Amino acid sequence: MGLIDNPNTIAARYRDAILTKRLPAGMSIDIMQEARDQGLNPSLLRQAMQILTTMGLVEWEGKSQVKIKSLTTQTLQDLGYTLTRRRL
Questions:
Q1: Residues in a beta bridge with 54
Q2: pTM of the complete model
């Protein structure tokens, strides 16, 4: 199984895009269209999105579409990110 064939690797790429806001909160992703655009197997992309759902980063909108959720402090903490306060 190659890296592109691994739903965990696909999920990690989308997770990073969400956390860096390259994929903004509120954006909807159509699984079939996204799979075509990115050259991914739709089934693997669906599995990757399910992983992101359990992380609290996306939510399903019907059978074939997900929506990027807003990032919260709790979501980031659950993902193991350490938040630091900016000093003035």
A1: none
A2: 0.81
